[in-house]
Amino acid sequence: MHPPITPADLAILIDESAVAARRLHLKLVLPAADLDDLRQDLLVDLICRLPGFDARRGSIGAFAGIILRNQSARIAIRHHRQRRAQGGTVLSLDAPIAGGVEPLGCLLAETDGLAAWHGQDASAAEDAELRHDLALALGALPEETRRLCAALGTCAIAEIVSHNDISRSALYRRIARLRLDLAMRGFGAWWDASRVA
Amino acid sequence: MLIMPRTAFIPARPRPLTDVEFCAWIGQAMPDDRLEYHRGFLGIDTTAVISTLPEPERRRLGALASAAHRAFEADLVHLVQVRLGPDRFAYLAIARTKPRRPPKALDRLLEDAEAA
């Protein structure tokens, strides 16, 4: 059983991991979102190897430096191998591909993007349509109901009750009416003819 | 020839229309689509004491009639009744053309509402 790590030593490990992650992140030219993953991978590997630390042979900072350097090298080798397997270098979205004039970013559809690969089906065109439909629906509501909508978007029920001098049951009645108002403008409820007489 | 076996289940009976379902129909209806939302005598069927409907049913119908009137006031439907016989009508909602141009951008609408 190894003695528990002190908070001071843990702080050193975290700092060293962060420095090593930033260095590796820059070296591999990775997206910003990958920095946290790198930092965490390096720190976990370092903690797993702590049982091999011997205080008589050097400081914990030196131990961490060696471990992090080796693990960074392994990650970099793995990363280069993956890039080679994918057929080469990273392409810029702002630069045209060979033989063309349009930037690569203009030629890719939303469904080719990283977000779509990860299951996020957001599309700029659909977003614009949704905003238009919302503006249409909200614009048709009375001013008071629109205020309620805006308040519900940012405040808890208790807060609205206390600020507007309205009873909780009256507020819920207004929300029920709001639900109908939005449903008749195409939001929130779905019509299924097979389920009603 | 393919012979379908007899079904071993009883299909679920459709439920009477609720106010939310009625509003959802309006939300998705094309102009001139029509929906019969009640058959009977709405004025009597929704009034306590004289209505012959069970109380939960009468309340559901009252809420549905209110939603229909609300949609009519918002210029989303025409409300029409067709006489079927003595004291018996079919109540129809006919979808109207929806406005296409929002009065203001969404951000402006929300900012104005929050500022008020």
SSE string of chain B, helix = H, strand = E?
HEHHEEH
Helical percentage of chain A: 55-70%
- Low-confidence regions of chain B: none
Question: What's the rounded overall pLDDT mean of chain A?
Answer: 84
From the alpha carbons, calculate the radius of gyration of chain B and give it in angstroms: 20 Å
Q: Cα distance, first to last residue of chain B? A: 70 Å
Q: What form of chain B results from the Cα inertia axes?
A: elongated
Q: How many domain units of chain B?
A: 1
Secondary structure class of chain A reads mainly alpha
Gross geometry of chain A: flat
Unreliable parts of chain A: none
* Helix/strand order of chain A: HHHHHHHHH
Structural class of chain B: alpha+beta
The largest chain-to-chain contact, stated as pair and per-chain residue counts, equals: A-B, 33 and 35 residues
* Oligomeric category: heterodimer
Report the biggest beta sheet of chain A as strand number plus sense, adding barrel if it closes.
none
- Report the C-alpha radius of gyration of chain A, rounded: 28 Å
Number of strands of chain B: 3
Overview of the structural elements:
The complex is a heterodimer of chains A (197) and B (116). By secondary structure, chain A is mainly alpha-helical. Chain A has 2 domains: 7-85, no CATH class; 126-188, Orthogonal Bundle (Arc Repressor Mutant, subunit A), CATH 1.10.10. Chain A contains 9 helices and no strands. Chain A starts with 6 loop residues before the first helix and ends in a 14-residue tail after the last helix. The model of chain A has no long low-confidence stretch (mean pLDDT 84). Chain B has helices spanning 19-28, 42-45, 55-73, 106-115; strands at 34-40, 77-85, 88-95. With 116 residues, chain B is of the alpha+beta class. Chain B has a 3-stranded antiparallel β-sheet, with helices on one face. In chain B, helix 1 (19-28) packs parallel to helix 3 (55-73). At the A-B interface, helix 6, helix 7 and helix 9 of A face helix 1, helix 3 and helix 4 of B.
